[in-house]
Amino acid sequence: MSHVVGTKGQVVIAKEIREQLGVEPGWIALQRVVDDHLEVCFLPPDDKRSLKGSLSQHAKVQLSPGKRWNKARETAWVAAARNKAR
After folding, report:
1. Do 40 and 30 form a contact (C-beta atoms < 8 A)?
2. Which of 43, 58, 63, 74 is the most buried (most CB within 10 A)?
3. How does pLDDT run across 33-67, given as a tens digit for each residue?
């Protein structure tokens, strides 16, 4: 399978190869020269989705931000520090 290099030096990655590797628009293409050929590795973009609430099913207590939250957080830190010191 071969493709012609475009006037701006662009090369098309064949659809079959993109599908096989799962490469999608927006992915990063890392390139390096190895001996006498080009090696390309693809990295997906950073995930922009929020993780807020993803652990809520594991929480025993749910507090809104404020004084109670700050007190609960401080209590948890103290307890964790004591367990670590033992």
Report:
1. yes
2. 63
3. 999 999 999 998 877 777 777 777 787 777 777 88
Q: Cα–Cα distance between 29 and 31 in angstroms, integer?
A: 6
Contact status, residue 29 vs residue 21, Cβ threshold 8 Å = no
At which residue do the structure tokens 């993109």 appear?
18
And the tokens for 3?
Answer: 């493709």
The domain segmentation of the chain, as residue ranges, is: 1-46, 56-85
DSSP secondary structure letters along 18-49:
HHHHT--TT-EEEEEEETTEEEEEEEPPPP-S
Concatenated DSSP letters of 70-84: HHHHHHHHHHHHHHH
Give the residue among 38, 6, 53, 45 at the shortest CA–CA distance from 22.
45
Tracing tokens 């594991």 back to the chain, one arrives at: 58
Whole-structure pTM value:
0.49
